[in-house]
Amino acid sequence: MNNTGNDAGVTGLLVDEHKIVLARLMAFETALDAFDLEQIHATIRFFDEQVVLHRRKEEEVLFPAMKKHLGTEDGPIQCMLAEHQDEQERIRKIRSLLEGDPGPTSRSAIVKAGRYILDLLRIHIVKEDNILFPIAESVLTDEEKKEVLARMKAIGFCNTECGG
Ligand SMILES: [Fe+2]
């Protein structure tokens, strides 16, 4: 696994970041089962500090480049954007429920929203890795891929440290 993107195409670094996100989701699932507040907070921090960078690479760089070829109406990109919105809404909800000392009602709402995020993102990542990214590899020109890669690298990588 490398992050150069050379032998992994233009989307290889995003696939690598998805693996880090999936590992974090596994820890999140355990944290929800045990209602481990410290780990739930750590997951929200991970979304705030790292997933935000990943999402920017997709929303500000890759998706707009793809739209030039695919158009802007409906289709897979709109679907991915809607899921990103959905994810952020649930994260916001958990963040607000975590304020203060969550009582039993808030706790069950946190677990419910957290499990929703687990389901949503696991499927979302499968769709991006297996449907959207192969489309990007096939529609973008070599020149566009070079530019997309450079701009994504400028945003910064979600490195292995962000899994903790
Ligand atoms: Fe993604």
Descriptive tags:
single chain; binds fe (ii) ion; disordered N terminus; Four Helix Bundle (Hemerythrin (Met), subunit A); 5 helices; mainly alpha; about 160 residues
Secondary structure layout:
Elements: H1 12-34, H2 37-70, H3 75-97, H4 104-139, H5 142-155
Helix pairs in contact: 1-2, 1-4, 2-3, 2-5, 3-4
The structure holds fe (ii) ion (FE2).
Fe (ii) ion binds at residues 14, 18, 54, 58, 128.
Can you characterise this structure?
With 164 residues, this protein is an all-alpha fold. The protein has one domain: Four Helix Bundle (Hemerythrin (Met), subunit A) (Up-down Bundle), CATH 1.20.120. It contains 5 helices and no strands. Fe (ii) ion (FE2) binds next to helix 1 and helix 2.
In short:
Helix content is 79%, strand content 0%. It is mainly α.
SS-derived structural category: mainly alpha
What's the N-to-C terminus distance?
A: 19 Å
CATH class: Mainly Alpha
Largest sheet: none
* Ligands: fe (ii) ion
- Count of DSSP H/I helices: 5
Overall geometry comes to elongated
Fill in the CATH topology: Four Helix Bundle (Hemerythrin (Met), subunit A)
Percent of residues in helical segments?
over 70%
Q: Which blocks of ≥5 consecutive residues have pLDDT under 50?
A: 1-6
How would you spell out the order of helices and strands?
HHHHH
CATH superfamily: nmb1532 protein domain like
Tell how many strands the DSSP assignment holds. Answer: 0
Quote the beta fraction. under 5%
Radius of gyration: 17 Å
Quickly give the CATH architecture. Up-down Bundle
What is the overall pLDDT average?
Answer: 90
Give the domain tally: 1
